[in-house]
Amino acid sequence: MRVAVIENMRNTGLGALAAALDEAGAEIEWFRVWQDGILPKDISGHDALVVLGGEQSALDDETHPYLPELVRLTRRFGDAGKAVLGICLGSQILARAYGADNHLGIAREFGWHGIGVTAEGRADPLLSALGGEFTIFEWHADTFSLPEGAVRLASSLVAENQAFRIGRAVYGTQFHFEANSAVVAQWKAEFPDTIARIAPGWLENHAELAARHAGAADAAGLAIARAWVSLIERQEVEMLSQASA
After folding, report:
1. pTM beyond 0.90
2. Dihedral, CA of residue 87, residue 7, residue 16 and residue 233, to nearest 10
3. d(CA 116, CA 85)
4. Residue 92: beta bridge partners?
5. What angle do helix axes 16-23 and 202-244 make, rounded to 10 degrees?
6. Contact 46/2 with Cβ under 8 angstroms?
7. What percent of the chain has pLDDT over 70?
8. Which UniProt keyword terms apply here (predicted)?
9. Tens-place pLDDT, residues 45-58
């Protein structure tokens, strides 16, 4: 299993998703577009695509000129029936790829928050193990409209579209389910000035907040990661079955 990971910002980290991919024996190929703008040449070399978060918006084509091609690439992976995962900025890029609108700066959330699972989400493979609500880490200011044909899986008061699915295995999550305790601690160490500006007091209260919420968030994030990775495995089984037929 080969998975292409698009890193839009330095040292983003895969966290829980890395653990789930490692369990599945996946080979990860990193594309650090923040450094060189290089993307996969086509979709044939990878079984799945992951698009991670970043500080830019999904519409920042002028300052991040690789974005239009990344938008087209995510759509090509999805249209081919391959598993696609967009996290935070990645979900906003996915929404753009499928014709939705990006809304900038109107939906700020930071830290551990409760997310509500829709009726469709409770029946969906990605979130079905989490019940009606779960705690997870958020860091975003932008949001998006629901793409036509997408299924809303999770929601919050600040951002109505917290998770969605298109087709079999194209998923966008506004929340950072990959951000387990280790990733959050890394972000705390690397971006203290930004965090202090957008969430006054959070740094000082981190230990208490982590003690209260990180355990549940880590468990939920790993469950989501494993659920998405299992969809890649099922696709491989289907492809092998078709080939043998």
Report:
1. yes
2. 80
3. 20
4. none
5. 30
6. yes
7. 95
8. Glutamine amidotransferase
9. 999 999 999 999 99
Alpha-carbon distance 154 to 156, whole Å?
A: 7
Give the contacts of 237 (CB within 8 A, at least 6 positions apart): none
Distance CA 245, CA 243 (A): 5
Q: How far apart are CA 94 and CA 8, in angstroms?
A: 14
- Report d(CA 14, CA 177) in Å as an integer: 10
Q: Are 99 and 148 in contact (CB under 8 A)?
A: yes
Contact between 173 and 92 (Cβ < 8 Å)? no
The encoded tokens of residue 224 equal: 């989501």
- 159's torsion region: left (phi>0), alpha (psi -120 to 50) or beta? beta
Beta-sheet pairing, 2-6 with 48-51? parallel
Average pLDDT score over residue span 232-237 = 52
DSSP letters spanning 101-114: PEE-SS--EEEEEE
3-state helix, strand, coil in the chain (%, to 5): 40, 20, 35
